[in-house]
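Practice problem 4.
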């Protein structure tokens, strides 16, 4: 198998964004309920991903992020079940408890499932699994 040629030293490293499906679905969704639910799932995933060992933010930083996130979630027109699940995830993201965060993210994914496409569900499932490991 031929190897790729070496990249020049001034080449910018490729950036990996782990929630491409969620972002793409939010971009495609109509304004209103579906888009707001998908955006809430994207925000929930980003809050939860900040606890993964490879990219972990300190608990203090996650708690600082949780305060405005709580306000942002409250500003959305979300179904009650999604709003409640998102609030649980925000609370879990401010603590040092990855298992609790995985459970909270599972709650978000479950109640938002009917709004999500297969790729978005897969990204949330992968994140839930990584939080449990």
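Answer key:
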């Amino acid at each position: 198998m031929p190897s790729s040629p070496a990249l020049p030293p001034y080449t910018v490293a490729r950036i990996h964004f782990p929630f491409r499906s969620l972002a793409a679905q939010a971009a495609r969704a109509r304004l209103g309920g579906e888009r707001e639910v998908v955006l809430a799932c994207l925000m929930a995933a980003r809050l939860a991903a900040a606890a993964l060992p490879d990219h972990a933010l300190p608990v203090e930083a996650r708690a600082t992020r949780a305060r405005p996130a709580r306000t942002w979630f409250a500003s959305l027109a979300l179904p009650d079940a999604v709003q409640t699940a998102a609030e649980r995830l925000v609370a879990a993201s401010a603590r040092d408890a990855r298992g609790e965060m995985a459970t909270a993210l599972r709650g978000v994914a479950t109640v938002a499932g009917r709004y999500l496409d297969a790729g978005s569900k897969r990204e949330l499932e992968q994140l839930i699994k990584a939080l449990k490991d």
